[in-house]
Write a sequence for this structure.
């Protein structure tokens, strides 16, 4: 049963990745990114792509720092949601980051790499034409988890790591946009009947952490942004469909409550009948809300 459940989970995640990549690439086909190495991790060059608006700007560009989804075990930096890509027309630079998948490295390596990418952008902001004080972390699913982690852990030395050459730079972001993020692994009931069994030996969460959340609760909490919310977290926008069969909507509700209880600014948009990776997040009211939120941060 668990094997069949995992098969359908992988099928769903792959379909989301493919669809996301198709939409994003279709929109970005006329944009040529600048590809740069932001650090070395485990002897590998870690890369990011910088997309800039077609219209030149005399002022430094605000940045959407994008992390792809894929259950931490698949996907690549070319998988960009259309709604993120569309912000190029609204004056943002879009930076999409590669991070180690879970078959290569376990947590907190992915967080260390995300922080290294952030510090790299800050250190080289002038040369890159970006505004180091207007960087918004964003992502979908596992990438939204990464974005939330950046938002909650600016002063967390264990999660900041020391990758790259710019450890003198701040680890802060000025906003977080998270589409259906997992935020508190241990809060998911063991009898949760969605496509993802969070406690299984072959769960993407187990693969990310290197062991089950059941036997490693401290490690699970270190990867759960809702457990790390604090008053210094930046403004956060969470969107989640109530028909999500992979990440229950309660995960965004928990994150929202944790941020508010800590004294931080958060907005949560539950969307009726939307599923995980629903294309409609790129349209209509959710898209308008996302664009409006991003504009308030610049």
């Amino acid at each position: 049963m668990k094997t069949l459940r995992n098969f359908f989970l992988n099928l769903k995640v792959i379909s989301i990745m493919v669809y996301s990549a198709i939409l994003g690439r279709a929109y970005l086909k006329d944009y040529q990114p600048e590809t740069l190495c932001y650090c070395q991790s485990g002897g590998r060059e870690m890369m990011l792509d910088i997309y800039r608006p077609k219209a030149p700007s005399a002022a430094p560009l605000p940045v959407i720092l994008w992390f792809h989804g894929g259950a931490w075990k698949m996907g690549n930096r070319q998988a960009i949601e259309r709604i993120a890509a569309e912000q190029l027309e609204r004056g943002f630079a879009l930076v999409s980051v590669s991070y180690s998948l879970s078959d290569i490295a376990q947590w907190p390596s992915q967080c260390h790499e995300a922080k290294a990418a952030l510090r790299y952008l800050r250190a080289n902001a002038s040369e890159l034409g970006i505004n180091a004080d207007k960087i918004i972390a964003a992502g979908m699913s596992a990438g939204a988890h990464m974005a939330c982690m950046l938002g909650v852990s600016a002063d967390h030395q264990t999660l900041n790591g020391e990758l790259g050459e710019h450890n003198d730079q701040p680890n802060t972001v000025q906003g977080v946009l998270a589409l259906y993020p997992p935020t508190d692994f241990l809060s998911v009931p063991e009898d949760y009947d969605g496509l993802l069994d969070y406690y299984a030996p072959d769960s993407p969460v187990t693969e990310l952490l290197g062991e089950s959340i059941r036997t490693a609760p401290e490690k699970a909490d270190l990867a759960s942004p809702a457990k790390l919310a604090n008053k210094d977290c930046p403004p956060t926008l969470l969107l989640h469909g109530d028909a999500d069969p992979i990440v229950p909507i309660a995960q965004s509700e928990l994150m929202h409550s944790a941020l508010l209880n800590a004294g931080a600014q958060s907005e949560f948009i539950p969307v009726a009948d939307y599923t995980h990776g629903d294309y409609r997040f790129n349209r209509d009211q959710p898209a308008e809300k996302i664009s409006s939120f991003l504009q308030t941060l610049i």
